[in-house]
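Ops channel
N.P.: pipeline sanity check, posting one input/output pair.
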């Protein structure tokens, strides 16, 4: 049997893959149980706002898990990855102990591997297509391994910078520094373009910074990924609102030949029920942005957020989980998820639901708010809930919630956080003359090219989808970069 050193020496040719296959039989790989992610203890982490819950894999755990990969001749896992990461190759590099090469493989197609390893719903994407799942076994922990490889680079201070082709001097603008914008910027920089990202807020990262708490995605991790893009030549302009501070025409006059709009979906939806204007009722967008980006949970904050003791979060998605777990961490004695469907229909990641329950979050499913009532000062004090049951499936395939006649109940609360979806940021759709806009306020694009009705304007992420995952937004960014490059080179 070949030694590890011999295998590593041979890695640039196909034989190393064959040697690995022979070094461990498929049956032996398939019988290995999936590794468990180490976590902070629930009773401790539920009071810690900025410490990451998942602790990451050790080198031994990562190599163990990598050896579960069967290195399929037809790697179906890759078909589930919107950014087309070469999953079998990066995992095989981990198996032979070449962790830096694994990280470099990730960066060939992903601008944010450390981010995706934490927040991407792998269980619905790449891992759902793993051959182990087809054999009724647990998928290879692709997300855990992606995080491990990216973290290893950072921890050992061996961060690689992807190579760009020779500069073509063509200026490209990006609106928004969230996952779609950063992914697009990274790919265009690799292709030799002069890329500038315009961000409306005072921090780079978009939803990765303002929307996701540090106990799930530390800001340090996002900053490392952004620093790599800067070293690739990507420039960032903060506190600049495209459509207000500068216009589409201003960018054209400044010499920008292409524009990618990734301004997201930052307009919160409400339910339009009585009492939503009471003090203590807010959107999850406001709550999380103020806590994550403005340090509003601190006692000495200039603009402190309310520290409710009896907090209800309306909704069942990942953002709702982030909000309710944040409320718990800043002092809620009772924190409740109120969701109109059953837990089986809940769109949040299973891991987030698990973590929330471990941290003492209550789940009041098959309930829907009808109205809120306030005290003499105008502060919310209780809510009336309608009990629900599930009827026939709706257009999304989930069973529709139906009210149970006469079944209502009052619950005492002192804070309500509404997390029932978002709408696209309306600024660019309203200020870019000639854009085609849908009834939902999203920018209409050619799905094959991501090009809008304006020839120089492409768009992706939530401004097109109306609300989606980080990885789908990144996939849009990559597709738009490839298609814009084709169009510009054709000219």
């Amino acid at each position: 049997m070949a030694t590890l050193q011999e295998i590593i020496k041979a890695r640039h040719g196909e034989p190393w893959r064959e040697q690995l296959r022979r070094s461990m039989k498929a049956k032996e790989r398939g019988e290995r149980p999936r590794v468990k992610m180490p976590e902070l203890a629930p009773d401790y982490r539920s009071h810690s706002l900025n410490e990451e819950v998942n602790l990451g894999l050790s080198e031994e755990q990562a190599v163990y898990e990598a050896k579960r990969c069967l290195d399929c001749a037809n790697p179906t896992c890759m078909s589930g990855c919107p950014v087309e990461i070469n999953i079998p190759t990066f995992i095989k590099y981990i198996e032979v102990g070449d962790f830096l090469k694994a990280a470099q493989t990730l960066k060939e197609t992903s601008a944010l591997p450390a981010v995706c390893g934490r927040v991407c719903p792998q269980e619905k994407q790449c891992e759902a297509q793993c051959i182990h799942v087809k054999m009724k076994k647990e998928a290879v922990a692709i997300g855990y391994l992606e995080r491990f490889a990216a973290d290893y680079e950072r921890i050992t201070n061996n961060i690689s910078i992807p190579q760009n082709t020779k500069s073509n001097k063509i200026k490209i603008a990006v609106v928004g520094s969230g996952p779609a914008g950063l992914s697009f910027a990274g790919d265009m920089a690799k292709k030799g373009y002069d890329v500038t990202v315009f961000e409306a807020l005072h921090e780079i990262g978009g939803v990765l910074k303002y929307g996701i708490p540090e106990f799930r995605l530390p800001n340090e991790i996002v900053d490392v990924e952004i620093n790599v893009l800067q070293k690739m030549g990507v420039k960032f302009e903060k506190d600049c609102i495209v459509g207000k501070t500068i216009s589409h025409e201003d960018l054209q006059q400044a010499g920008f030949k292409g524009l990618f709009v990734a301004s997201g979906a930052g307009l919160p939806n409400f339910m339009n029920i009585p009492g939503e204007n009471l003090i203590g009722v807010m959107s999850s967008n406001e709550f999380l942005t103020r806590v994550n980006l403005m340090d509003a949970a601190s006692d000495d904050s200039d603009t402190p957020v309310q520290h409710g003791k009896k907090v209800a979060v309306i909704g069942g998605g990942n953002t709702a989980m982030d909000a309710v777990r944040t409320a718990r961490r800043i002092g809620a004695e009772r924190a409740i998820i109120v969701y109109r469907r059953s837990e089986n229909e809940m769109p949040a990641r299973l891991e987030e639901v698990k973590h929330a329950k471990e941290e003492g979050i209550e789940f009041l499913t098959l309930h829907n708010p009808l109205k809120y009532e306030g005290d003499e000062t105008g502060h919310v004090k209780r809510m009336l809930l309608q009990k629900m049951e599930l009827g026939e499936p709706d257009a999304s395939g989930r069973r529709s919630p139906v009210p149970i006649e006469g079944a209502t109940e009052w619950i005492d609360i002192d804070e309500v956080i509404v997390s029932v979806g978002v709408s696209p940021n309306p600024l660019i759709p309203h200020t870019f003359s000639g854009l085609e806009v849908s009834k939902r306020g999203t920018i209409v694009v050619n799905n094959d090219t991501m090009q809008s009705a304006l020839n120089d304007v492409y768009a992706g992420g939530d401004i097109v989808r109306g609300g989606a995952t980080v990885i789908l937004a990144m996939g849009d960014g990559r597709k738009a970069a490839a298609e814009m490059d084709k169009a510009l080179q054709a000219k």
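N.P.: looks fine end to end. Confidence is low (pLDDT under 50) at residues 1-5.
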